User: Fold this.
Amino acid sequence: MVNQRGNFCVSTRIHYGLGSLEFLSELDIKKALIVSDPFMVKSKMIENVTKQLEKGGIEYTIFSEVIPDPNVSVVVSGVAMAQNICPEAIIAFGGGSAIDTAKGIMYFYTCINGPGQGDLKPRLIVIPTTSGTGSEVTDFAVITDEKAKVKIPLIDKRLMPNHAILDASLVRSLPPAITADTGIDVLTHAIEAYVSTLASDFTDALAEKAIRLVFEYLPKSYQNGSDDEARVKMHNASALAGMAFTHTSLGINHSMAHALGGRFHIPHGRANGILLPYVIDYNSKEEKAAARYAKISELLGLNFISEIYAAKELRNMVKKLKEDLDMPACLKETGISEVEFLASIEALAATAMKDPCTKTNPRVPTRDDIENLFKKAYYGG
Ligand SMILES: NC(=O)c1ccc[n+]([C@@H]2O[C@H](COP(=O)([O-])OP(=O)(O)OC[C@H]3O[C@@H](n4cnc5c(N)ncnc54)[C@H](O)[C@@H]3O)[C@@H](O)[C@H]2O)c1
Ligand SMILES: [Fe+2]
Assistant:
């Protein structure tokens, strides 16, 4: 890989380790808006946040209308609340859906109140409770246009969190199926960042570490949610992969997963996991991409005789990981009806082609290529 011109900056301050939530009580602010989902409120997990704010004498309002794959209406409702209270910080607490809702609120709130407000822009503080999206360190958010049934990736500097709090004790309660889905999302971020046309030595270092951590610790997190070491490592892997892909963007795996999520609402990580072996096969027909997959195989200690075989070995290792996590092998197994899927396939491919992630895929796809990939991923094999 020859380095092209670029730059690298991670501006988010990362607070990690047990007790890192205490940082909230040290914030020099008076008012905060907490963005979370109903489960966090009902389960009282939100008290991890509110207790710290109370300790610091900080007033707060909770917006808990977050839904999976957050849509424009939810963001509009959150912006209205922000307009009412004028918070000095927006605190996202939850999985990628809560984080991206908070980012959407921040984006439109600052658009309405005028750009370049300097210190008047609320601080964005992100506390992930899944180890998956890496959204705590990216300038990326995915909001669904519910009418058009498409996910819109929003990419803007204002979406970069000021602070990320990585406290893996918050992830202990994550059920195995969500641990698997979100963990495979981490792997997909890291692999797509590694083979992206914008990859550099800086992003490679992050992606390589994330890939190793996922293969070692995702099965352990899945088998035993109370394995604190595995939870910490997966939480870190998620942020490492996020720091890589916020610089490299992603590839068609994510473009296709966004299209599927917008139309069929299958969990984001599950969609990525189903597509990943097929996308590796497709991309590795391109020589340079095959060489990059071979590097990943090498770092995982796989044996191979040529780069094409190396990519196949990696594909097989991903399939084996998914089997260990009891994940579906194809889209048909997720219950999507065949008639509905085939009727949607042209629209899905058109949406995926337009997705910004397609631009950095290592192989330039045609619409037919994407349609064929969708068919393979539906029927499996
Ligand atoms: N911004 C980015 O960079 C980026 C990257 C990838 C994906 N995404 C987006 O993120 C969203 C998916 O996020 P996700 O995969 O984290 O899922 P999610 O936020 O939708 O959460 C999934 C479920 O897990 C529950 N949950 C969360 N934390 C829990 C915990 N600690 N214990 C028990 N239950 C818990 C939630 O209540 C929810 O029901 C999608 O909308 C996707 O498009 C964004
Ligand atoms: Fe993702």
